[in-house]
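Notes to self after the call with IL:
- keep both proteins in one doc
- input above output, always
- annotate only the second one for now

Protein 1:
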Amino acid sequence: MPLLDVRDLRVEFPTRHGVLTALHDVSFSVDKGERLGIVGESGAGKSVAAFAILNLLSRPGRITGGRILFEDRDLATLSRADMRAIRGDRISMIFQDPMMTLNPVLTIGTQMVETLKAHRDISDAEARRIAIQRLGEVKIPSPEKRMASYPHELSGGMRQRVVIAIALLTEPALIIADEPTTALDVTIQAEIMSLMLDLCRTHGVGLILITHDLAVVSQVTQRVVVLYAGRVVESGQTARVVQNPVHPYTRGLLSALPGEGEPGARLNQIRGSMPPLTAIPPGCAFHPRCDYAEERCRVGVPPLDVIEDHNVRCTRARELIRGVAA
Protein backbone atom coordinates (compact mmCIF):
# COMPACT_ATOMS: atom_id res chain seq x y z
CA MET A 1 0.00 0.00 0.00
CA PRO A 2 1.41 3.46 -0.92
CA LEU A 3 2.36 5.89 1.82
CA LEU A 4 0.24 8.53 0.06
CA ASP A 5 -2.45 7.71 -2.48
CA VAL A 6 -4.19 10.65 -4.15
CA ARG A 7 -7.09 9.52 -6.32
CA ASP A 8 -9.31 11.65 -8.59
CA LEU A 9 -8.62 14.80 -6.57
CA ARG A 10 -10.81 17.73 -7.58
CA VAL A 11 -10.36 21.23 -6.17
CA GLU A 12 -12.73 24.10 -6.92
CA PHE A 13 -12.87 27.82 -6.14
CA PRO A 14 -16.37 29.35 -6.09
CA THR A 15 -16.14 32.93 -7.38
CA ARG A 16 -18.48 35.63 -8.66
CA HIS A 17 -17.58 34.40 -12.16
CA GLY A 18 -18.78 30.90 -11.31
CA VAL A 19 -17.06 27.83 -9.97
CA LEU A 20 -13.46 27.55 -11.18
CA THR A 21 -11.84 24.11 -11.17
CA ALA A 22 -8.14 24.20 -10.24
CA LEU A 23 -7.57 20.43 -10.24
CA HIS A 24 -9.45 17.96 -12.45
CA ASP A 25 -9.40 14.39 -11.12
CA VAL A 26 -5.67 14.37 -10.37
CA SER A 27 -4.19 11.05 -9.26
CA PHE A 28 -0.71 10.06 -8.06
CA SER A 29 0.90 8.05 -5.27
CA VAL A 30 4.10 8.04 -3.23
CA ASP A 31 5.58 4.93 -1.65
CA LYS A 32 7.57 4.97 1.57
CA GLY A 33 10.94 6.56 0.87
CA GLU A 34 10.03 7.36 -2.74
CA ARG A 35 10.71 10.69 -4.44
CA LEU A 36 8.02 12.09 -6.74
CA GLY A 37 8.27 15.24 -8.86
CA ILE A 38 5.25 17.38 -9.79
CA VAL A 39 6.14 19.61 -12.74
CA GLY A 40 4.47 22.42 -14.64
CA GLU A 41 4.45 26.15 -15.28
CA SER A 42 2.97 28.66 -12.87
CA GLY A 43 -0.78 28.13 -12.76
CA ALA A 44 -0.62 24.42 -13.58
CA GLY A 45 -2.00 23.43 -10.16
CA LYS A 46 1.16 22.13 -8.50
CA SER A 47 0.93 24.13 -5.28
CA VAL A 48 -2.84 23.65 -5.10
CA ALA A 49 -2.27 19.90 -5.03
CA ALA A 50 0.24 20.28 -2.18
CA PHE A 51 -2.03 22.57 -0.17
CA ALA A 52 -4.97 20.22 -0.70
CA ILE A 53 -2.97 17.33 0.77
CA LEU A 54 -2.25 19.36 3.90
CA ASN A 55 -5.71 20.96 4.04
CA LEU A 56 -4.16 24.41 3.62
CA LEU A 57 -6.29 25.60 0.72
CA SER A 58 -7.06 29.29 0.87
CA ARG A 59 -10.76 30.04 1.06
CA PRO A 60 -12.98 29.74 -0.84
CA GLY A 61 -10.95 26.84 -2.24
CA ARG A 62 -12.35 23.41 -1.39
CA ILE A 63 -11.90 19.75 -2.18
CA THR A 64 -15.02 18.60 -4.03
CA GLY A 65 -14.02 15.12 -5.11
CA GLY A 66 -11.56 12.30 -4.74
CA ARG A 67 -9.60 11.03 -1.77
CA ILE A 68 -6.22 11.62 -0.15
CA LEU A 69 -5.18 8.46 1.65
CA PHE A 70 -2.14 8.86 3.90
CA GLU A 71 -1.13 5.93 6.09
CA ASP A 72 -4.61 4.49 5.43
CA ARG A 73 -6.46 7.66 6.57
CA ASP A 74 -8.38 9.96 4.22
CA LEU A 75 -6.95 13.41 4.94
CA ALA A 76 -9.83 15.09 3.11
CA THR A 77 -12.27 13.87 5.79
CA LEU A 78 -10.25 14.61 8.94
CA SER A 79 -11.21 17.25 11.49
CA ARG A 80 -8.99 20.30 11.95
CA ALA A 81 -7.58 18.89 15.19
CA ASP A 82 -6.74 15.53 13.60
CA MET A 83 -5.18 17.29 10.61
CA ARG A 84 -3.02 19.48 12.87
CA ALA A 85 -1.68 16.32 14.50
CA ILE A 86 -0.47 15.10 11.09
CA ARG A 87 0.64 18.41 9.56
CA GLY A 88 4.14 19.24 10.73
CA ASP A 89 4.52 15.81 12.32
CA ARG A 90 3.94 12.95 9.87
CA ILE A 91 3.92 15.33 6.87
CA SER A 92 6.22 18.35 6.71
CA MET A 93 6.33 21.08 4.11
CA ILE A 94 9.16 23.23 2.82
CA PHE A 95 8.00 26.48 1.19
CA GLN A 96 9.67 28.63 -1.46
CA ASP A 97 10.84 31.51 0.72
CA PRO A 98 12.37 30.64 4.11
CA MET A 99 11.84 34.20 5.34
CA MET A 100 8.10 33.63 4.99
CA THR A 101 8.40 30.39 6.96
CA LEU A 102 10.63 31.48 9.83
CA ASN A 103 9.47 33.91 12.51
CA PRO A 104 11.77 36.96 12.28
CA VAL A 105 11.46 37.86 15.99
CA LEU A 106 12.34 34.42 17.40
CA THR A 107 15.72 32.72 17.42
CA ILE A 108 16.28 29.60 15.38
CA GLY A 109 16.60 27.58 18.58
CA THR A 110 13.32 28.87 20.00
CA GLN A 111 11.43 28.01 16.82
CA MET A 112 12.90 24.51 16.61
CA VAL A 113 12.28 23.71 20.27
CA GLU A 114 8.70 24.98 20.06
CA THR A 115 8.07 22.88 16.96
CA LEU A 116 9.28 19.73 18.68
CA LYS A 117 7.37 20.36 21.89
CA ALA A 118 4.17 20.96 19.91
CA HIS A 119 4.33 17.38 18.66
CA ARG A 120 6.34 15.52 21.31
CA ASP A 121 6.11 15.25 25.09
CA ILE A 122 9.77 15.99 25.77
CA SER A 123 11.83 18.35 27.91
CA ASP A 124 13.39 21.58 26.66
CA ALA A 125 16.84 20.04 27.02
CA GLU A 126 15.94 17.01 24.89
CA ALA A 127 14.26 19.21 22.28
CA ARG A 128 17.37 21.39 22.14
CA ARG A 129 19.60 18.33 21.71
CA ILE A 130 17.51 17.06 18.78
CA ALA A 131 17.44 20.53 17.20
CA ILE A 132 21.24 20.85 17.35
CA GLN A 133 21.57 17.37 15.87
CA ARG A 134 19.30 18.26 12.93
CA LEU A 135 21.18 21.51 12.27
CA GLY A 136 24.37 19.48 12.10
CA GLU A 137 22.77 17.05 9.64
CA VAL A 138 21.96 19.89 7.24
CA LYS A 139 25.60 20.99 7.33
CA ILE A 140 25.16 24.19 9.33
CA PRO A 141 28.52 25.04 10.97
CA SER A 142 28.60 25.58 14.74
CA PRO A 143 24.97 24.49 15.22
CA GLU A 144 25.04 25.30 18.95
CA LYS A 145 25.86 28.93 18.16
CA ARG A 146 23.27 29.12 15.37
CA MET A 147 20.55 28.17 17.83
CA ALA A 148 20.87 31.72 19.19
CA SER A 149 20.75 33.38 15.74
CA TYR A 150 17.77 35.19 14.26
CA PRO A 151 16.69 34.42 10.66
CA HIS A 152 17.93 37.77 9.31
CA GLU A 153 21.43 36.97 10.54
CA LEU A 154 21.68 34.00 8.17
CA SER A 155 22.18 33.87 4.41
CA GLY A 156 19.40 32.63 2.13
CA GLY A 157 21.03 29.22 1.76
CA MET A 158 21.54 28.89 5.51
CA ARG A 159 17.92 29.85 6.17
CA GLN A 160 16.71 27.17 3.77
CA ARG A 161 18.93 24.64 5.53
CA VAL A 162 17.27 25.62 8.80
CA VAL A 163 13.84 25.12 7.23
CA ILE A 164 14.89 21.65 6.05
CA ALA A 165 16.16 20.86 9.55
CA ILE A 166 12.80 21.93 11.00
CA ALA A 167 11.01 19.73 8.47
CA LEU A 168 13.05 16.75 9.68
CA LEU A 169 12.62 17.46 13.40
CA THR A 170 9.70 15.09 13.97
CA GLU A 171 11.03 12.38 11.63
CA PRO A 172 8.12 12.71 9.18
CA ALA A 173 7.13 10.01 6.74
CA LEU A 174 6.64 12.54 3.92
CA ILE A 175 8.08 15.94 3.01
CA ILE A 176 6.43 18.22 0.45
CA ALA A 177 8.92 20.71 -0.99
CA ASP A 178 7.28 23.54 -2.96
CA GLU A 179 9.93 25.15 -5.20
CA PRO A 180 12.45 24.96 -2.32
CA THR A 181 15.32 26.62 -4.20
CA THR A 182 13.51 29.36 -6.16
CA ALA A 183 14.78 32.19 -3.94
CA LEU A 184 18.42 30.99 -4.06
CA ASP A 185 21.23 31.51 -6.55
CA VAL A 186 22.21 28.68 -8.87
CA THR A 187 25.22 27.35 -6.94
CA ILE A 188 23.28 27.25 -3.66
CA GLN A 189 20.34 25.58 -5.41
CA ALA A 190 22.52 22.62 -6.35
CA GLU A 191 23.83 22.30 -2.80
CA ILE A 192 20.34 22.39 -1.28
CA MET A 193 18.92 19.80 -3.69
CA SER A 194 21.88 17.49 -3.10
CA LEU A 195 21.39 17.90 0.65
CA MET A 196 17.66 17.11 0.45
CA LEU A 197 18.35 14.02 -1.63
CA ASP A 198 20.94 12.74 0.85
CA LEU A 199 18.68 13.40 3.84
CA CYS A 200 15.68 11.66 2.26
CA ARG A 201 17.82 8.61 1.55
CA THR A 202 19.32 8.62 5.04
CA HIS A 203 16.01 9.00 6.87
CA GLY A 204 13.88 6.96 4.47
CA VAL A 205 11.52 9.92 3.98
CA GLY A 206 9.13 10.18 1.04
CA LEU A 207 9.46 13.40 -0.97
CA ILE A 208 7.10 15.33 -3.23
CA LEU A 209 9.18 17.91 -5.09
CA ILE A 210 7.14 20.66 -6.74
CA THR A 211 9.01 22.56 -9.43
CA HIS A 212 8.92 23.92 -12.98
CA ASP A 213 12.42 22.58 -13.66
CA LEU A 214 12.58 19.14 -15.29
CA ALA A 215 16.38 19.19 -15.02
CA VAL A 216 16.13 19.22 -11.22
CA VAL A 217 13.41 16.55 -11.29
CA SER A 218 15.60 14.28 -13.44
CA GLN A 219 18.38 14.44 -10.85
CA VAL A 220 16.32 14.02 -7.69
CA THR A 221 13.08 12.10 -8.28
CA GLN A 222 12.18 8.56 -9.26
CA ARG A 223 8.77 9.30 -10.75
CA VAL A 224 7.27 12.44 -12.23
CA VAL A 225 3.80 13.89 -12.80
CA VAL A 226 3.42 16.67 -15.39
CA LEU A 227 0.47 19.01 -14.79
CA TYR A 228 -1.11 21.44 -17.24
CA ALA A 229 -4.15 23.60 -16.44
CA GLY A 230 -5.05 21.38 -13.49
CA ARG A 231 -4.85 18.04 -15.30
CA VAL A 232 -2.20 15.32 -15.41
CA VAL A 233 -0.91 15.26 -19.00
CA GLU A 234 1.94 12.78 -18.50
CA SER A 235 3.36 10.66 -15.70
CA GLY A 236 5.74 7.77 -15.23
CA GLN A 237 9.26 6.83 -14.23
CA THR A 238 11.35 10.02 -14.32
CA ALA A 239 14.16 8.58 -16.43
CA ARG A 240 11.76 7.25 -19.07
CA VAL A 241 9.68 10.43 -19.23
CA VAL A 242 12.77 12.65 -19.51
CA GLN A 243 14.48 10.45 -22.10
CA ASN A 244 11.35 9.71 -24.14
CA PRO A 245 8.72 12.39 -23.51
CA VAL A 246 5.44 11.79 -25.30
CA HIS A 247 3.12 14.72 -24.60
CA PRO A 248 3.92 17.89 -26.59
CA TYR A 249 3.88 19.92 -23.37
CA THR A 250 6.49 17.68 -21.72
CA ARG A 251 8.57 17.88 -24.87
CA GLY A 252 8.28 21.67 -24.80
CA LEU A 253 9.42 21.89 -21.18
CA LEU A 254 12.46 19.74 -21.94
CA SER A 255 13.38 21.61 -25.11
CA ALA A 256 13.25 24.88 -23.15
CA LEU A 257 16.11 23.79 -20.88
CA PRO A 258 19.24 25.93 -21.47
CA GLY A 259 21.36 22.92 -22.42
CA GLU A 260 19.02 21.92 -25.25
CA GLY A 261 19.67 24.92 -27.49
CA GLU A 262 22.61 25.77 -29.73
CA PRO A 263 25.40 27.84 -28.10
CA GLY A 264 24.71 31.53 -28.68
CA ALA A 265 21.20 30.89 -30.02
CA ARG A 266 17.97 32.05 -28.45
CA LEU A 267 16.49 29.67 -25.89
CA ASN A 268 13.64 27.48 -27.04
CA GLN A 269 10.27 28.31 -25.57
CA ILE A 270 6.68 27.18 -25.66
CA ARG A 271 4.68 29.89 -27.37
CA GLY A 272 1.89 31.54 -25.42
CA SER A 273 1.24 31.07 -21.71
CA MET A 274 -0.75 28.99 -19.26
CA PRO A 275 -4.44 29.91 -19.50
CA PRO A 276 -6.11 31.37 -16.40
CA LEU A 277 -8.83 29.35 -14.68
CA THR A 278 -11.42 31.73 -16.11
CA ALA A 279 -10.40 30.96 -19.70
CA ILE A 280 -9.52 27.27 -19.97
CA PRO A 281 -10.04 26.37 -23.67
CA PRO A 282 -12.35 23.48 -24.59
CA GLY A 283 -10.91 20.10 -25.45
CA CYS A 284 -7.23 19.67 -24.66
CA ALA A 285 -6.26 22.82 -22.74
CA PHE A 286 -2.82 22.80 -24.37
CA HIS A 287 -4.07 22.86 -27.98
CA PRO A 288 -3.70 26.67 -28.52
CA ARG A 289 0.03 26.31 -27.81
CA CYS A 290 0.59 22.92 -29.45
CA ASP A 291 2.38 22.46 -32.78
CA TYR A 292 0.52 19.20 -33.38
CA ALA A 293 -3.06 20.28 -32.59
CA GLU A 294 -5.87 19.14 -34.86
CA GLU A 295 -9.60 19.79 -34.86
CA ARG A 296 -10.23 16.74 -32.66
CA CYS A 297 -7.94 18.25 -30.00
CA ARG A 298 -10.38 21.15 -29.66
CA VAL A 299 -13.46 18.99 -29.15
CA GLY A 300 -13.07 16.78 -26.10
CA VAL A 301 -10.61 16.30 -23.24
CA PRO A 302 -8.51 13.24 -24.14
CA PRO A 303 -8.37 10.44 -21.56
CA LEU A 304 -5.15 9.26 -19.93
CA ASP A 305 -3.69 6.49 -22.07
CA VAL A 306 -0.89 4.07 -21.11
CA ILE A 307 1.83 4.27 -23.73
CA GLU A 308 5.34 2.84 -23.25
CA ASP A 309 4.95 2.81 -19.45
CA HIS A 310 3.79 6.45 -19.47
CA ASN A 311 0.36 7.77 -18.67
CA VAL A 312 -0.28 10.31 -21.43
CA ARG A 313 -3.26 12.59 -22.12
CA CYS A 314 -2.95 13.31 -25.84
CA THR A 315 -5.04 12.20 -28.82
CA ARG A 316 -1.94 12.16 -31.04
CA ALA A 317 0.44 10.45 -28.60
CA ARG A 318 0.83 7.25 -30.60
CA GLU A 319 1.49 9.22 -33.78
CA LEU A 320 4.12 11.28 -31.99
CA ILE A 321 5.88 8.15 -30.79
CA ARG A 322 5.97 6.74 -34.31
CA GLY A 323 7.16 10.10 -35.66
CA VAL A 324 4.28 10.44 -38.09
CA ALA A 325 2.61 13.48 -36.48
CA ALA A 326 3.00 16.71 -38.43
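Protein 2 (the one to annotate):
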Amino acid sequence: MINQQQLWDDEAAGQYDTPGEGMFSPEVLGPTVEVLSGLAKGGSAVEFAIGTGRVAIPLSEAGIPVSGIELSHAMIARLREKVGEHRIPVVQGDMTGARAGENFSLAFLVFNTIANLLTQEEQIRCFENAARHLIPGGRFVIELWVPQLRSLPPGHGGTVEVAQPGYLLVDTYDVLRQHVISHHVHFGPELTDGHEARVGRTPHRYIWPSELDLMARLAGFELESRWADWDRSEFTAESRSHVSVYRLIER
Protein backbone atom coordinates (compact mmCIF):
# COMPACT_ATOMS: atom_id res chain seq x y z
CA MET A 1 0.00 0.00 0.00
CA ILE A 2 1.52 3.32 -1.10
CA ASN A 3 1.62 5.99 1.62
CA GLN A 4 1.10 9.16 -0.42
CA GLN A 5 1.76 11.36 2.64
CA GLN A 6 5.26 9.89 2.93
CA LEU A 7 5.79 10.06 -0.82
CA TRP A 8 5.02 13.80 -0.98
CA ASP A 9 7.00 14.75 2.12
CA ASP A 10 9.05 17.83 3.07
CA GLU A 11 11.92 16.82 0.78
CA ALA A 12 9.61 16.34 -2.22
CA ALA A 13 7.86 19.64 -1.55
CA GLY A 14 11.19 21.43 -1.27
CA GLN A 15 12.39 20.05 -4.60
CA TYR A 16 9.11 20.66 -6.41
CA ASP A 17 9.43 24.39 -7.05
CA THR A 18 11.77 25.47 -9.85
CA PRO A 19 10.97 29.20 -10.19
CA GLY A 20 11.17 30.39 -13.79
CA GLU A 21 12.24 26.99 -15.11
CA GLY A 22 10.63 23.75 -16.28
CA MET A 23 6.95 23.58 -15.36
CA PHE A 24 7.32 26.96 -13.64
CA SER A 25 8.56 28.74 -16.77
CA PRO A 26 6.49 31.57 -18.27
CA GLU A 27 6.25 29.58 -21.50
CA VAL A 28 4.34 26.85 -19.63
CA LEU A 29 2.40 28.87 -17.07
CA GLY A 30 1.32 31.66 -19.43
CA PRO A 31 -0.80 29.49 -21.78
CA THR A 32 -2.05 27.39 -18.83
CA VAL A 33 -3.40 30.39 -16.96
CA GLU A 34 -4.85 31.88 -20.16
CA VAL A 35 -6.84 28.72 -20.95
CA LEU A 36 -8.08 28.22 -17.39
CA SER A 37 -9.05 31.89 -17.01
CA GLY A 38 -11.13 31.69 -20.17
CA LEU A 39 -12.86 28.48 -19.10
CA ALA A 40 -13.73 29.92 -15.68
CA LYS A 41 -15.81 32.58 -17.47
CA GLY A 42 -15.54 34.99 -14.55
CA GLY A 43 -16.53 32.39 -11.94
CA SER A 44 -14.48 30.68 -9.25
CA ALA A 45 -12.16 27.70 -9.66
CA VAL A 46 -11.05 24.75 -7.54
CA GLU A 47 -7.79 22.93 -8.13
CA PHE A 48 -7.53 19.28 -7.17
CA ALA A 49 -4.00 18.46 -5.89
CA ILE A 50 -3.09 22.14 -5.69
CA GLY A 51 0.45 21.34 -4.56
CA THR A 52 2.61 24.37 -3.85
CA GLY A 53 0.44 26.69 -5.93
CA ARG A 54 2.31 26.50 -9.24
CA VAL A 55 -0.88 27.20 -11.25
CA ALA A 56 -3.26 28.45 -8.54
CA ILE A 57 -1.19 31.49 -7.58
CA PRO A 58 -0.83 33.00 -11.09
CA LEU A 59 -4.48 32.12 -11.81
CA SER A 60 -5.49 34.00 -8.68
CA GLU A 61 -3.30 36.91 -9.75
CA ALA A 62 -5.22 36.90 -13.05
CA GLY A 63 -8.41 37.64 -11.12
CA ILE A 64 -9.94 34.16 -10.74
CA PRO A 65 -10.91 33.20 -7.16
CA VAL A 66 -9.17 29.87 -6.49
CA SER A 67 -9.64 27.25 -3.78
CA GLY A 68 -7.79 23.96 -3.50
CA ILE A 69 -7.67 20.39 -2.26
CA GLU A 70 -4.33 18.85 -1.35
CA LEU A 71 -3.41 15.61 0.42
CA SER A 72 0.18 16.49 1.36
CA HIS A 73 0.74 18.53 4.52
CA ALA A 74 4.22 19.41 3.23
CA MET A 75 2.87 20.79 -0.05
CA ILE A 76 0.31 22.91 1.79
CA ALA A 77 3.01 24.27 4.11
CA ARG A 78 5.09 25.27 1.09
CA LEU A 79 2.06 26.98 -0.45
CA ARG A 80 1.43 28.86 2.79
CA GLU A 81 4.93 30.35 2.60
CA LYS A 82 3.73 32.14 -0.54
CA VAL A 83 0.07 33.02 0.06
CA GLY A 84 -2.32 33.01 3.00
CA GLU A 85 -5.52 31.07 3.58
CA HIS A 86 -7.59 34.20 2.98
CA ARG A 87 -6.36 34.40 -0.60
CA ILE A 88 -6.30 30.72 -1.59
CA PRO A 89 -8.20 28.51 0.87
CA VAL A 90 -7.12 24.87 0.85
CA VAL A 91 -8.80 21.77 2.28
CA GLN A 92 -6.39 19.04 3.35
CA GLY A 93 -7.63 15.70 2.05
CA ASP A 94 -7.98 13.22 -0.78
CA MET A 95 -9.23 14.57 -4.10
CA THR A 96 -11.58 11.61 -4.44
CA GLY A 97 -13.74 12.81 -1.56
CA ALA A 98 -12.62 16.04 0.12
CA ARG A 99 -14.94 19.01 -0.38
CA ALA A 100 -13.74 22.58 -0.95
CA GLY A 101 -17.21 24.06 -1.46
CA GLU A 102 -19.66 24.08 -4.35
CA ASN A 103 -20.95 26.17 -7.26
CA PHE A 104 -17.53 26.48 -8.88
CA SER A 105 -17.41 27.26 -12.59
CA LEU A 106 -14.17 25.37 -13.08
CA ALA A 107 -12.33 22.43 -11.55
CA PHE A 108 -8.90 21.44 -12.80
CA LEU A 109 -6.29 18.75 -12.24
CA VAL A 110 -2.99 19.31 -14.02
CA PHE A 111 0.50 17.88 -14.55
CA ASN A 112 -0.62 14.20 -14.78
CA THR A 113 -1.78 14.17 -11.16
CA ILE A 114 -4.92 12.07 -11.66
CA ALA A 115 -2.49 9.20 -12.36
CA ASN A 116 -1.38 9.40 -8.69
CA LEU A 117 -4.66 7.60 -7.95
CA LEU A 118 -3.65 3.98 -8.41
CA THR A 119 -6.98 2.29 -9.16
CA GLN A 120 -9.64 2.87 -11.77
CA GLU A 121 -12.25 3.15 -9.01
CA GLU A 122 -10.36 6.00 -7.34
CA GLN A 123 -10.00 7.80 -10.64
CA ILE A 124 -13.75 7.55 -11.29
CA ARG A 125 -14.44 8.87 -7.79
CA CYS A 126 -12.24 11.85 -8.61
CA PHE A 127 -14.52 12.70 -11.55
CA GLU A 128 -17.57 12.28 -9.32
CA ASN A 129 -16.06 14.61 -6.73
CA ALA A 130 -15.37 17.21 -9.42
CA ALA A 131 -19.03 17.02 -10.47
CA ARG A 132 -20.11 17.72 -6.88
CA HIS A 133 -18.07 20.93 -6.87
CA LEU A 134 -19.39 22.37 -10.14
CA ILE A 135 -22.41 24.30 -11.30
CA PRO A 136 -24.37 22.72 -14.19
CA GLY A 137 -22.38 23.38 -17.33
CA GLY A 138 -19.16 23.81 -15.34
CA ARG A 139 -15.87 22.49 -16.73
CA PHE A 140 -13.41 19.93 -15.42
CA VAL A 141 -9.95 20.19 -17.03
CA ILE A 142 -7.40 17.39 -16.89
CA GLU A 143 -3.82 17.53 -18.16
CA LEU A 144 -2.39 14.04 -18.67
CA TRP A 145 0.31 12.19 -20.53
CA VAL A 146 -0.42 9.56 -23.17
CA PRO A 147 0.97 6.12 -22.26
CA GLN A 148 4.04 5.40 -24.36
CA LEU A 149 3.66 1.64 -24.61
CA ARG A 150 4.66 1.68 -28.27
CA SER A 151 8.16 2.63 -27.16
CA LEU A 152 8.57 -0.54 -25.06
CA PRO A 153 11.06 -2.87 -26.79
CA PRO A 154 9.81 -6.46 -27.18
CA GLY A 155 10.52 -8.41 -24.03
CA HIS A 156 11.38 -5.31 -21.98
CA GLY A 157 9.31 -3.66 -19.28
CA GLY A 158 10.82 -0.20 -19.17
CA THR A 159 11.89 2.88 -21.10
CA VAL A 160 14.38 5.69 -20.58
CA GLU A 161 12.28 8.85 -20.84
CA VAL A 162 14.94 11.45 -19.96
CA ALA A 163 18.74 11.18 -20.11
CA GLN A 164 20.63 14.36 -19.36
CA PRO A 165 23.67 15.39 -17.29
CA GLY A 166 22.93 14.63 -13.66
CA TYR A 167 19.49 13.10 -14.23
CA LEU A 168 17.84 9.97 -15.62
CA LEU A 169 14.13 9.17 -15.75
CA VAL A 170 13.35 5.49 -16.23
CA ASP A 171 9.74 4.26 -16.41
CA THR A 172 8.91 0.61 -15.70
CA TYR A 173 5.50 -0.80 -16.68
CA ASP A 174 3.04 -3.31 -15.28
CA VAL A 175 0.70 -3.51 -18.27
CA LEU A 176 -1.79 -5.82 -16.53
CA ARG A 177 -2.60 -3.24 -13.85
CA GLN A 178 -1.80 -0.19 -16.02
CA HIS A 179 0.84 0.84 -13.52
CA VAL A 180 4.01 2.80 -14.17
CA ILE A 181 6.78 3.45 -11.67
CA SER A 182 8.93 6.45 -12.54
CA HIS A 183 12.49 6.11 -11.25
CA HIS A 184 14.16 9.51 -10.85
CA VAL A 185 17.94 9.08 -10.69
CA HIS A 186 19.96 12.16 -9.68
CA PHE A 187 23.73 11.89 -9.82
CA GLY A 188 26.89 13.95 -10.17
CA PRO A 189 28.78 16.63 -8.24
CA GLU A 190 25.62 18.66 -7.48
CA LEU A 191 24.62 16.08 -4.86
CA THR A 192 25.57 17.41 -1.44
CA ASP A 193 24.68 14.41 0.74
CA GLY A 194 27.89 12.47 0.06
CA HIS A 195 26.24 9.89 -2.18
CA GLU A 196 27.12 9.20 -5.79
CA ALA A 197 23.44 8.95 -6.77
CA ARG A 198 19.99 9.41 -5.32
CA VAL A 199 16.92 7.51 -6.52
CA GLY A 200 13.31 8.53 -5.99
CA ARG A 201 10.29 6.55 -7.19
CA THR A 202 6.74 7.65 -7.93
CA PRO A 203 3.93 5.22 -8.85
CA HIS A 204 1.16 6.04 -11.31
CA ARG A 205 -1.81 4.39 -12.99
CA TYR A 206 -1.87 5.40 -16.64
CA ILE A 207 -5.15 6.11 -18.41
CA TRP A 208 -5.90 5.96 -22.12
CA PRO A 209 -7.81 9.01 -23.44
CA SER A 210 -10.82 6.86 -24.36
CA GLU A 211 -10.88 5.38 -20.85
CA LEU A 212 -10.74 8.88 -19.38
CA ASP A 213 -13.74 9.86 -21.52
CA LEU A 214 -15.72 6.91 -20.19
CA MET A 215 -14.90 7.87 -16.60
CA ALA A 216 -16.18 11.35 -17.40
CA ARG A 217 -19.45 10.03 -18.81
CA LEU A 218 -20.03 7.89 -15.71
CA ALA A 219 -19.79 11.06 -13.60
CA GLY A 220 -22.11 13.11 -15.82
CA PHE A 221 -19.58 14.90 -18.04
CA GLU A 222 -19.14 15.10 -21.80
CA LEU A 223 -15.91 15.82 -23.66
CA GLU A 224 -15.95 19.37 -24.95
CA SER A 225 -12.37 19.89 -26.21
CA ARG A 226 -9.07 18.07 -26.35
CA TRP A 227 -5.73 19.59 -27.31
CA ALA A 228 -2.18 18.29 -27.35
CA ASP A 229 -1.04 21.07 -24.99
CA TRP A 230 -2.03 24.38 -23.43
CA ASP A 231 -1.32 26.17 -26.71
CA ARG A 232 -4.38 24.35 -28.07
CA SER A 233 -2.36 22.41 -30.63
CA GLU A 234 -4.20 19.63 -32.45
CA PHE A 235 -4.29 16.32 -30.60
CA THR A 236 -3.06 13.51 -32.87
CA ALA A 237 -2.00 9.87 -32.65
CA GLU A 238 1.57 11.09 -32.11
CA SER A 239 0.77 13.46 -29.22
CA ARG A 240 2.53 12.58 -25.96
CA SER A 241 0.08 14.45 -23.75
CA HIS A 242 -3.31 16.10 -23.82
CA VAL A 243 -5.41 18.78 -22.15
CA SER A 244 -9.01 17.55 -21.99
CA VAL A 245 -11.97 19.79 -21.14
CA TYR A 246 -15.11 18.10 -19.84
CA ARG A 247 -18.44 19.88 -19.42
CA LEU A 248 -20.87 18.86 -16.68
CA ILE A 249 -24.12 17.99 -18.42
CA GLU A 250 -27.01 20.14 -17.28
CA ARG A 251 -29.91 18.08 -15.96
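Annotation: The radius of gyration is 18 Å. The chain is about 25% helix and 30% strand.
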